[in-house]
Amino acid sequence: MTGRFTDRAARERFGEALGRAMEAWPPHETLDVPTTWGTTRVHHRPGTGKPVVLLHGAGVTSAMWADTVKAIERPVFAVDILGDAGGSVQTAPLKDMNAWLAEVLDRLGLADPLLVGISYGAWIAALHPVTESVLVEPAAGTFAPYRFRAIFYAVLAKLSHSERAWRRYLRWISNGEEPSDAAVIGLTHWRSGLPLPRRIRRTIEAKTVVIVGERSRAQDSRKLVARAKELPNARIVVTPGGHGLPANLADYLP
């Protein structure tokens, strides 16, 4: 299955909302990177030092990184995940997210960037062999399962086909943060082409910062911390927030 909008009107409304959300970004260039499974949109802002590749959470687009990008002086490449609502265009079913990311990085000439992901994006980052990564509230399957309520409420929102229901869910899962219109429209009207995250069996050798929200409604922070402690090169940061980006994320980059 390839990701797509349910109708043209929803696609147009999403495009307008995403354009407004991306206005919060600092000046940058937009790249369209060809891959085996379609064209991947990448937002690039130049800088100095080791490149940083940002992978957003499912349904929330690269617009979420605006404040983080402003605080980073390194070259930044924010990738719109193929199969999800955003600027990328999927043309073939995609099951191996690691193979897709490898093609994107190769096309960009990034041999060993710092991978930074949140939620679903953190799961993708954990799959990929690099020397350094930052995983924020990694999606279920990375370290710990999602709470039953988080899954149940998401299923209810999906079955409702209601923007109001998805907005309410996003507020709940993020402990009260107001979601963007683009995220709400996308989650309501987009039919995802993303594979479900699966348990990562291999040992993650990368120097890894794992950021956990103490009040996360997505998963049990204690279970996540316990699993992350098994990694050979992990630094674990527990923030007072929930399932979202800490305001000072740039301070935790290695």
Describe the structure.
By secondary structure, the chain is an alpha/beta fold. The chain has a single domain, classed as 3-Layer(aba) Sandwich (Rossmann fold). Helix content is 32%, strand content 20%. It contains eight helices and eleven strands. The strands form two sheets. Strands 2, 3, 4, 5, 6, 7, 8, 10 and 11 form a nine-stranded mixed beta sheet that branches. Strands 1-9 form a two-stranded antiparallel sheet. Helix 5 (148-160) packs antiparallel against helix 6 (163-173). The longest helix has 15 residues, at 8-22. The chain starts with a strand and ends in a 15-residue tail after the last strand.
Short description:
The protein is of the alpha/beta class. The chain contains eight helices and eleven strands. Helix 8 links the parallel strand 10 and strand 11.
Please describe the topology of this protein:
Layout: E1 4-5, H1 8-22, E2 29-35, E3 38-45, E4 52-55, H2 66-70, E5 76-79, E6 89-90, H3 97-108, E7 114-118, H4 120-127, E8 132-136, H5 148-160, H6 163-173, H7 181-189, E9 190-191, E10 207-213, H8 221-228, E11 234-239
Helix pairs in contact: 1-7, 5-6, 6-7
